[in-house]
Write a structure and sequence with these properties.
With about 160 residues, this protein is mainly alpha-helical. The protein contains eight helices and two strands. Helix 2 runs parallel beside helix 7. The two termini are about 30 Å apart.
Amino acid sequence: MSVKKLAYWLLPVAWMGMLFYSSSTPYQEQTLKPFLASYMDLSFLKPLLHPIVFTYHHTIVSVEQLGVEGFVEFFIRKGAHLGSFFILFGLFYIALHKGTASEKKRLWSLLLTISYAVIDEMHQGFTPNRTPYYGDVIIDTAGALLALLLVTTFRNKKQK
């Protein structure tokens, strides 16, 4: 494999490094609630979000339980999961597309992304005040599947 082709693999490896670092950071050092409370008045959302109540990882997620800032932060954090693994899929796909002749680049990209999502969640189990949860792997997988859908749609349009 040429150095140029190998260099494409630095992209997903670097991204996984950033995800690893993020998973190594305790929740208290990542929370957005103080920022949201200090710099944004989200009180107007309270009546809109108040009826939304559900359980995630044995915890009730609601404005009543978390406050508006905590509720908004929950969705920002889950959106970050989705977006991060959307990007990871794309980086794996680029590395495989540029570096191999395999016809199963999309499948391999998906499998590598899901595998890293599982590893990342297990790694969180070793971080203070962080817990691994399969629900986050499902969200990560959804991000990868969205990226797969985008790549597949783009490739199908390009072939026509």
